[in-house]
Design the sequence.
């Protein structure tokens, strides 16, 4: 498995323009890392499918907190 | 962020958002939802083209009204034209992880719905707002009186409770007797059911000689699936029989989850999940918005389901919206006073008088001797409509039948411009009981 992390543009504000707290920044960072892992096709099924599950849970938290609003239908 | 277990809100950030910010958030989500629907759903693109509206026309929340309505009939027609799912869906069916159907209680063709992994997670998430608001916490043991079939029902609530960290008791196809025994034995603190079935289980407990108030640990009954959860007399009856607080929620298969929930302050209505939905209230005939305090049809736009964009969907549910300040809980989400009040197409005309089944139930449930009831509409001699309320009495109250019959008939007439209701006695066990949505009205006039 590759351990390279994709470069993620740093987001400083939520959807309403409020500065992100340190916790929110960490949640968003975790989400993007999981999103990157979940889009890979070279991981073992046990890693890939659990990454997808974890990713959608983080997606919920990030959407609830107005950190992002990405297309819900796409995994 | 504060310690979440002590927060009365599932999402403190949005549940207490200023109304102006909430509206900005809704506009942003609306714009993106419309863009996506236009780009990925031929169904929506067709509706938008027909209405001559493009995604970039949506610049303010008022522009929502430029968008066309979406109806159940449109949806069914597209399913019939392109089976199984029509061209409403935004992605290939193989991308879905879940399939469900509408309940089909009205006897109509069911709608078929698909959900992606994210959609399904969001469905559970929306329930979390409601369950947390009513006081469900990780220490709770939650019993689901639900059959876990293809009707979406409490599926999302089940996953919500797992997410919260509750001990979940799924009762599947158990009998009512076994359900009652299990929830007592396992020390369930929260019970989820339709209002009708919550009453049914309480009756069964009485038959078994189980005093739910003393022998069970249930302190919350969370109901969904029927308007009765917000009818004061029905709610009181549930609370009295269980010795617990009764909280209402309402959702629909078309949404996949709940769009309203009652908080623990029990304000006499349900909060709208306004960071995930826009709920308009419109005059059902003119389609024009009605103000706070006025009865109208709810029209929903959802931001959470990617597979099936729901934009200005006409629900036919009747509601009265009031400001969030009606509740002292601190949420800034507006409220539907009295929950879902019925359906636009529920109304029956009997000898020139409008009759709503929910209004009849509200009166019948004031009579604590009544165990179960049915409303039967008939046409006598081909011209004269008759309305009969058939009631089954609780054991031991039969000797008071004549008094109950007279008073119930009077109460029903008083609430319906003097319309005469026949009140008839049913034998014990004669009337049907329901687990899912109750069907307490039989209109036999069209069958004559």
Sequence:
């Amino acid at each position: 498995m590759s351990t390279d992390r994709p470069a993620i543009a740093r987001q400083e504000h939520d959807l309403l323009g409020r500065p992100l707290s340190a916790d929110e920044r960490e949640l968003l960072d975790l989400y993007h890392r999981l999103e990157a892992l979940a889009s890979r096709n070279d991981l073992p099924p046990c890693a890939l499918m659990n990454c997808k599950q974890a990713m959608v849970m983080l997606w919920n938290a990030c959407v609830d907190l107005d950190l992002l609003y990405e297309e819900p239908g796409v995994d | 962020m504060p310690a979440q277990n002590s927060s009365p809100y599932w999402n403190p950030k949005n549940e207490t958002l200023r109304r102006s910010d909430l509206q900005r958030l809704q506009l942003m989500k609306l714009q993106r939802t419309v863009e996506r629907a236009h780009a990925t759903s031929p169904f929506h693109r067709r509706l938008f083209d027909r209405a001559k509206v493009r995604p970039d026309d949506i610049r303010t929340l008022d522009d929502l009204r430029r968008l066309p309505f979406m109806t159940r009939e449109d949806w069914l027609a597209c399913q019939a034209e392109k089976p199984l799912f029509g061209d409403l869906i935004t992605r290939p069916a193989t991308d879905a992880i879940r399939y469900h159907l509408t309940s089909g209680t009205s006897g109509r063709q069911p709608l078929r719905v698909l959900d992606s992994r994210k959609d399904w997670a969001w469905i559970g998430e929306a329930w979390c707002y409601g369950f947390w608001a009513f006081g469900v916490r990780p220490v709770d043991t939650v019993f689901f009186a639900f059959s876990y079939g293809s009707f979406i029902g409490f599926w999302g609530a089940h996953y919500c409770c797992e997410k919260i960290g509750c001990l979940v008791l799924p009762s599947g196809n158990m009998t009512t007797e076994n359900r009652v025994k299990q929830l007592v034995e396992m020390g369930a603190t929260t019970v989820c059911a339709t209002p009708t079935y919550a009453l049914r289980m309480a009756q069964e407990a009485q038959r078994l000689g189980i005093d739910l108030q003393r022998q069970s640990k249930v302190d919350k009954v969370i109901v969904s699936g029927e308007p009765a959860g917000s009818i004061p007399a029905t709610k009181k009856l549930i609370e009295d029989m269980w010795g617990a607080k009764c909280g209402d929620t309402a959702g629909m298969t078309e949404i996949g989850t709940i769009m309203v929930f009652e908080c623990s302050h029990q304000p006499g209505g349900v909060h709208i999940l306004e960071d995930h939905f826009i709920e308009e209230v419109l005059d059902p005939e003119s389609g024009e918005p009605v103000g706070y305090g006025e009865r109208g049809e709810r029209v929903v736009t959802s931001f959470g389901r990617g597979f099936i964009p729901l934009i200005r969907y006409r629900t036919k549910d009747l509601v009265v919206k009031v400001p969030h300040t009606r509740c002292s809980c601190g949420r800034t989400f507006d409220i539907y006073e009295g929950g879902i009040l019925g359906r636009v197409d529920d109304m029956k005309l009997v000898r020139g008088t409008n009759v709503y089944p929910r209004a009849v139930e509200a009166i019948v449930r004031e009579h604590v001797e009544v165990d179960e009831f049915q409303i039967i509409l008939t046409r006598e001699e081909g011209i004269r409509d008759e309305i009969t309320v058939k009631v089954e009495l609780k054991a031991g109250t039969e000797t008071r039948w004549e008094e109950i019959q007279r008073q119930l008939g009077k109460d029903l007439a008083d609430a319906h411009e003097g319309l005469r209701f026949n009140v008839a006695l049913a034998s014990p066990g004669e009337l049907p009981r329901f687990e899912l949505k109750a069907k307490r009205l039989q209109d036999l006039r069209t069958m004559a």
In short: The first helix of chain B runs from residue 12 to 15.
